[in-house]
Amino acid sequence: MDEHAISLSRVSVTLPGATRPVLRDVDLTIEEGELALVVGLTGSGKSTLLGAICGRVPHFTGGTLAGHVRLHGRDTRDHRPRDLADLVGVVGQDPLAGFVTDTVEEELAYGMEQLGLPAATMRKRVEETLDLLGIAELRDAALRELSGGQQQRVAIGSVLTAHPRVIVLDEPTSALDPTGAEEVLATITRLVHDLAVTVVVAEHRVERVLHYADTVVHVSPDGSVRSGTPAELMVTSDIASPVVELGRYAGWSPLPLSVRDARRAAVTLRSRLTSTLATPSPDRPTGHSRDVALAARDVVVRHPGDVLAVAKVSLDLFAGEVTALMGRNGCGKSSLLWAVQGSGELTSGTVQASTTAPAAMVDPRTLDAAARRALVGLVPQSAADLLYLDTVGAECDQADRESHAAPGTCARLLARFAPGIPATRHPRDLSEGQKLALVLAVQLTADPPVLLLDEPTRGLDPSAKAVLSGALRDLAARGRAVVVATHDVEFVAECADRVVVMAAGQVVADGPTADVVVSSPAFAPQVSKVTGPGPWLTVAHVRAALDGGMP
Amino acid sequence: MNTSLPRAVHPAAWWGWAIGMAVAVSMTTNPLLLLLALAVVALVVAARRGSSPWARAFRLYLWLGLAIIIIRVVLHVLVGLKFGEIVLVRLPEVTLPSWAAGIQLGGTVYLEGLLAAALQGLRLAVMIACIGAANALANPKRLLRTMPSALHEIGSAVVVLVSVAPQLAESVQRVRRARQLRGDARRGLRSVPAIALPVLEDTLERSLLLASAMDSRGYGRAGAVSRGHRLLTGTATLGGLLACAVGIYGVLDATTPALMGTPMLLGGLALSAVGLWLGGRHVPRSTYRPDPWLTAEWLTIACGVVAAAVFVVTSRVSPSSLSMPLTPLAVPALPIPAVLGLLVGALPAYLTPEPPRPAPRVPRRGSAQLVGSRG
């Protein structure tokens, strides 16, 4: 009847056990061939909206859905997700979690097999898709051996082969390094432009997708949904890219969406900024003391299967400094952190951490696990692995006990990072940001002089990221050495004093954030690209330079 | 000898061949024939196995076989019934009470008895090598794909199960490592709750993700099936299974009327097949690049059948030539037909097309090539 690609009419969704709807009275239409970007804070019902579009809500998740969701006229009321498989393809956050088979070619064919397409058609489409995604040389590769970007492209390919008219992607780049993310985003825009597929994509880091989007759909925490053109919606959105924030600050209209637009609008801003350069640069004063908190020398980590993860890295960590560790997936960041902490593998090299005893350096590897933890704390990539009790309160008490801290230490820390979490809540029910806050609190209960964090920004929305950034700055101000391994250049610009870039197991760059980041187009934050070549990395820096406030 | 392009031979053909070889082996204790059969199986595996991980597992089956021989011999020495004339060792014998008569603990070990035990072990070991050969030659996942379409959902479930096991091991390792970060170095039973809970939650979460992904990709999509058709399918399958059960009973129990035996079993099998066919007709599912069944497959099966048939015939005509002469001990015979039968079993090594060789791949992680550490 209607030829909208997607139309939601008066849709409200209440999830099982919830008292108020996650989405209320949503009216939304997305036309064929559009790229719609869904934005919203964590827990705002973004995923529920995507789930409702592909039929998983309520067929798979339970709950009640009022109103109608129609895809090219097909109502999700009468069609289960499997009956929509020929119409809508779904790609999740973690590509590996959705793979059914184990080689690229079979995975691409799986969906078509379920639809019962003739063998000749399948053969042809697999070849076309391999070429479209540029993964033809990987056809026999085992899925687990691919890089994150390749896996995500295979996941997209595996839904493409069924020739769906709508593709729904839920944060497809959140697990990827900047290069992998670019690969995937380039693929997505190609789908929209070459195949006229309707694409609905949710993404936290809007700066990556905003300039490709035709429509922005904004989900508010109260469950209402607004949609409009990106420039219109970004004026008030609570989630915005740094370029948009710069545009809002400078009062540009229409708002710039890409670095190119902003750069063209920023001619006067740049000249004003350059004129402030005579005054002291907005560089953050580096730690008052340059005490070495941890010294690693010639660290080599070799994993089974003849993989050299870290190749002779020497690194000093200074008290009062936040160091960002960057580099593509699999370049040895995690291996280095684990080796430095002392719990992970270390093939050769030495690690010395300073202790409270004057001028005493000790190898954390020689200590037992509890003492090591009090010296060097590590928040691993899957932070939730550290949690195993059934309430937040029990986790906090256990943390106090195992680090011999005064009762209530951990709970106080948690209240500072994420206020208002009830102690009776199950850790699994927390949002990504709250989970990270809890693990951070648990690890900080031992009050280690050195804290290492492995990809803490994964899945965090901007407000949670701001809280984390504040917490890390606070730690540095109290003389702790902090290392953050991350892909998020904007986060690095916000919070790091120093950047270490790794590639193929070696350190390729090491220096103050402004120097390292500005000199590389891949790692430069958006504001720096707009205002360059000056030392302004964030909107706060620009504001400080122009208004004279503190960054 | 064969000019066909490299391709994987149908897994069912390899299983047919391997079962034929195993049947042949099961009829003999003649060490010459057993060793020849082992050589034949090893030759075919060496010539035609692919590059997948399970193709490398053949060696494991050989080790398993060796372990079986050793266990068989040790058991013979410990509790076996000793017989023969040539004394090897005199061990003290424990006299057991009368209710345990027939079990001889310790006692004198004779060469004949020991040889008989070792050869029985060898026979089982070679049969296991045959099964191992089938596993090495035929990709088990491809075998599952050849299941009738009515059963394909079970096949998918098995495939998922197979891929979940290594993931589980991975997450146990990850959580165990993470526990150390909380200063928890507990080992053994006391560490179980701290590790099991996150792992189980992780696994459950992953399963749900996978299930929803499979659902969205059309797994379990059924065409419109009428009520009558469903009833018919159910009746045929259930009736077939019942008839099979009764038939097996009839075959095994000689006192039942003849009609309850083989005819009932065959009828039941046919009915089940009809049920599967009916059920599969309405599953709108196809197979990507199905393995073709061509001359090479027929030849492979035929070679296995010939080997088995020759041994069956030989065991009727001259049963003594297939067994090891023990009383009195003598050099085993070398029956020419049986040898030829086994050599026919080796033909698939030359008659089938070569397996495809995958292109070498560069390791994704690390910098092995950069530092030149690849030995």
Main beta-sheet strand count, sense and barrel state of chain B:
2 strands, antiparallel
- Based on DSSP secondary structure assignment, what is the total number of beta strands of chain B? 4
Mean pLDDT of chain B: 84
Largest two-chain interface: A-B, 88 and 59 residues
Mean pLDDT of chain A: 87
CATH homologous superfamily annotation of the largest domain in chain A: P-loop containing nucleotide triphosphate hydrolases
Q: How much helical structure, as a percent, in the residues of chain A?
A: 25-40%
Task: Report the portion of residues of chain A in β strands.
Answer: 15-25%
First-to-last CA distance of chain B: 37 Å
Tell me the number of strands of chain A: 20
Which features characterize this protein?
heterodimer, A: 551 residues, alpha/beta, Rossmann fold, six-stranded mixed β-sheet, 21 helices, 36% helix, 22% strand, B: 375 residues, mainly alpha, 3 domains, two-stranded antiparallel ribbon, two-stranded antiparallel sheet, 13 helices, 4 strands, 62% helix, disordered C terminus
